[in-house]
Automatic annotation (TrEMBL):
Any one GO CC term of the record: phagophore assembly site
Name of the protein in its database record: PI3K/PI4K catalytic domain-containing protein
Gene source species: Aegilops tauschii subsp. strangulata
Gene Ontology molecular-function annotations: 1-phosphatidylinositol-3-kinase activity
PROSITE patterns, sorted: PI3_4_KINASE_3 (PS50290)
């Protein structure tokens, strides 16, 4: 139930930011509640960051391999780099506001 609520908050913040013309390229998971304490979360095929870095030595190398552009910034397509930067910023701000991952958040 808590995960569903967090996803709903991310979706709400994404919609509110877009209303202010701030598209941070957020992609909240789809969630289907099947009971009070159970549900299903959309499967997103991915690799852990540690695996990406061990195989490619850096995020930049990974992005260069899958979104190459010799004329783009850092050898990466401008669109890919913009999406990566905006989504990192958006998720960082949202998780900070919600206190995700910090049980000792003190303001």
């Amino acid at each position: 139930m808590l995960k569903d609520m967090v996803i709903q908050m991310v979706s709400l913040m994404d919609r509110l930011l877009k209303l202010e013309n701030m598209d941070l390229h957020l992609t909240p998971y789809q969630v289907l509640a099947t009971g009070q304490d159970e549900g299903m979360v959309e499967f997103i095929p991915s690799s852990p960051l540690a695996q990406i870095i061990s195989e490619h030595r850096s995020i930049t190398s990974y992005l260069q391999k899958f979104h190459p552009d010799e004329d783009g910034p850092f050898g990466i397509t401008a669109q890919c780099l913009e999406t990566f930067i905006k989504s990192c910023a958006g998720y960082s701000v949202i998780t900070y506001i919600m206190g995700v991952g910090d049980s000792n958040l003190q303001l």
